Amino acid sequence: MLLSIQDLQVAFRMGKVRGEVQRQQAVKGISFDVPENSTVALVGESGSGKSVTAMSILNLLPDNAERSGRILFQGRDLLQSSQRELQALRGREIACVFQDPMSSLNPVFTVGDQIMEPLMLHLGMSRRQALARAEELLNEVGIPDPKRRLASYPHEMSGGQQQRVMIALALSCGPKLLIADEPTTALDVTIQRQVMELLARLKEAHRMSLLFISHDLGVVGEIADRVVVMRHGQIREQAPVAQIFQSPQDAYTRALLACRPSLQDNPARLTVIDDHIAGRAARQVASIKDPEAPVILEARGLRKSFFFREGLFGRKEFQAVKDVSFRLRKGHTLGVVGESGSGKTTMGLTLLRLHEPTAGEVFFEGRDLLKLSATDWQQMRRRIQVVFQNPYASLNPRFTIAQTLVEPMEIHDIGADHEERLEIAAGLLKKVGLDDSALPKYPHEFSGGQRQRIAIARCLTLKPEVLVLDEAVSALDVSVQAQVLNLLKDLQDEFGLSYIFISHDLAVVRFISDEVLVMQHGDVVEQAETSQLLAAPKQDYTRRLLGAVPRGYQGAGQNA
Q1: Domains of the chain
Q2: Residue 433: left (phi > 0), alpha (psi -120 to 50), or beta?
Q3: Is the per-residue pLDDT at 390 higher than 90?
Q4: Cα separation of 99 and 212, whole Å?
Q5: What is the radius of gyration, based on Cα positions, of the chain?
Q6: Closest to 362 (Cα-Cα) out of 301, 305, 319
Q7: How does pLDDT run across 142-183, given as a tens digit for each residue?
């Protein structure tokens, strides 16, 4: 057995109360094995303890962590290893690939220097040998023109290329175990597909084992041999991947499988974890949309270019958005999909004039938003709001939730006084599934899903008519994602909101959208009613996007 985790417990010291040290138990006596040349997946929601478990293997935990039990790697207990022994093991025998490559790669060193460092440190290569091996590794992970890319800095590469560099770095010393912690979560479906296929191919080529951590059972079903399901620091179920998908034994596993949106069917409402476990069925009566509802927002020939200096006096134009046109009806949702770099986010920001457009028209109730004066646009802005992808970055960490919700009302003179604004804020928190006890707290006291609910509540303080949702659920695990998507549908039904829903997840887009607009390289390549487009896409690019969507384990001739 390559790796055997036996009765692992991890707790974090949280300070003293009345002289007694308080501890938060994150992992509660779990046991599982990773055989040689196999892929074991750890799955569960945020806070389930899966990442803490993985980081315990090499003790990549903060100083206040306390571990007990046994972690046997090739028969050697890593919990008894010294810091020096672990440092010799890291990268050489056990390597890691993390979720966000931009925060894992050093921005001030070239890609080549970062790959060369472990080669010289662990394998004793000369700089020339390490440089040649680094080029080979970039070529192996599919980086085009690897010799030139050795001199690139991380910010000069796309997210998918950065993740490939991280994989090359992890493989540089030929590890026996690769720990991949949510390595595809931030990537669009086609890049995610490429990275998954790359990991599977490299695993076979190098005959190494893979500990794959994810909250997405669709991804796990395609890459794992065995699945370990965790919740609240405990293992709820572990079994071969076929059994997990075809006959899951634990109610929590069944709930995880049930709450993810699907390309095959489209319920009126997604089942959430607690409802599924309790046996409560989701409301299945869908609201009926008026196909002739008035058009609230219309874009005509929208363009956005960025200009870069080229040479001493030259200027180069990059067209990020090219002649985009669409109509959004009141109470409807327009889904916008495409790979990273397709222009979908730039298009959304240009609609909001967070990027000033190069050309085009955007009509809101007959008025061209792009020609409004600064004063008129300030008044109009309250009617068109945005929810961003990262709830951690979009809330001011120094503001309480009360300040976060009250500030826009003060700016736009909503509410008679501070007390009335606080009352409105408390009511909106209730709408998004929180209560007024959240008002005096700060963003760091909430989970990612709760922060996204707060960001939505902040938008609602201005009583908007249109919301631009830019990857608003992509950073959330599947159960929280289901809650937020249900919430968005409820708010649309109650307030008649119109959404522009930007996403790379076609299953999510199918669930929430009435119409879909597909973008590639700044162009609209296809646009149609949602079920029609997904059932019979006309363009090869759309078919390629659909083909890249993870579908989970496929056995016995069917998709579980």
Answers
A1: 3-265 (3.40.50.300), 393-463 (no CATH)
A2: left
A3: no
A4: 11
A5: 25
A6: 301
A7: 888 899 999 999 988 877 788 889 999 998 888 999 999 888
